[in-house]
Design a protein that fits this description.
about 80 residues, mainly alpha, flat
Length: about 80
Amino acid sequence: MKKLRIIFLIVTIALAGMTIINKNFNFTPYTASAAGVTILLTGIIEIQQDKKAFSGYLLVLLSVFIFFASILEFLLN
């Protein structure tokens, strides 16, 4: 699970860097989706570590919001 999180983190950074360098904002929904998956995996890892902290659940909720925003970006573009 941690390896998958690192892969999506690298994809997110690469897409964001490509967007900044090329000034082409067509990749913004893909960047947001990759960031949402990264945050979701981080939240799942926090919950699986049996931490009673609120941060894992907050990260999962945040990833749902990011997915909703990226779906709206896909539909509006």
